[in-house]
Amino acid sequence: xxxxxxxxxxxxxxxxxxxxxxxxxxxxxxxxxxxxxxxxxxxxxxxxxxxxxxxxxxxxxxxxxxxxxxxxxxxxxxxxxxxxxxxxxxxxxxxxxxxxxxxxxxxxxxxxxxxxxxxxxxxxxxxxxxxxxxxxxxxxxxxxxxxxxxxxxxxxxxxxxxxxxxxxxxxxxxxxxxxxxxxxxxxxxxxxxxxxxxxxxxxxxxxxxxxxxxxxxxxxxxxxxxxxxxxxxxxxxxxxxxxxxxxxxxxxxxxxxxxxxxxxxxxxxxxxxxxxxxxxxxxxxxxxxxxxxxxxxxxxxxxxxxxxxxxxxxxxxxxxxxxxxxxxxxxxxxxxxxxxxxxxxxxxxxxxxxxxxxxxxxxxxxxxxxxxxxxxxxxxxxxxxxxxxxxxxxxxxxxxxxxxxxxxxxxxxxxx
Length: 416
Fold this sequence. Notes:
The protein has 14 helices and 13 strands. Strands 3-2-1-4-5-7-11 form a seven-stranded parallel beta sheet, sandwiched between helices. Strands 6-13 form a two-stranded parallel sheet.
């Protein structure tokens, strides 16, 4: 199969991804740089830029291509192993770019605390500096809605259909839910402050990214379900929106086209999701209902048939786990942050990104979710069933831990 431009596709794509890739899309810059290019989102972004006609794409990441699932051997892709905290390495990678998509980050709650500020904030400063030095005019920053979630150990946010303008402004006055969110907010503010006629930038975020080759969200959920210990948290009716990885990459790509002098999007923050393709009346779904569909799709027992864990029971255990983790210097899967995000409403009105970036999903949620479940059943489940070391309910998925270990080894070595 080929794209509308007659270009080949990565054989590792799922059927829905391949079908979406064959449509016609606006042109993309000739020379592109993607930091975090071997991550789940970064890998697909690199592929989609090539699919849409980019002549050369630098995939810059600390994780080598050999550790990727379905790495694409394409002459337009240059895989560069480098650390976002290494100013010289970032400088070399960005030189000559028409646009930089900055995705490199320490993601989730599981990294050692020392990594977050160095990677998420100082790494972003390195990208900004390199763009200025080499005259790169365009920068698309991958942000996170969690930068606007005001909360802490004793405050659970409720994000029920908010627009970007109705969310709290940065910096948050009442604290962040986790250090990841805080350092991503610091990075986003740095990008916004750097905007000028010489550097046009925009911040675009997804929410709960999913799709084939996911190495964080679904593997951790499914490993917990496979252990037989996962239960629905709380009442199980919390509303959430998802973003298929291809939909998010599409939003990141078309954001570049809106970066021109005087553009109203410069320096702004947008959230892109699967929008009105979600199955409920609004642009959201019922989180635990969709999770249960994935669990049953793996052949595991339905969560709906089991008793629910009451929120206050989980919250009490999570507070204890946070304390123990603080003492031991580790992060358990059951922690306050995860209890909050798995029980709170988390969905958004995406009219701003639809209006300003002209975004609409290229893969609807129902088809994307079905396609993702099929991919995990064919590609993830056999390895999980054969594995002797399963982390289950308290640990994190082996695929997630592997990337954390690589990032930690390099960054902490530099710190020490």
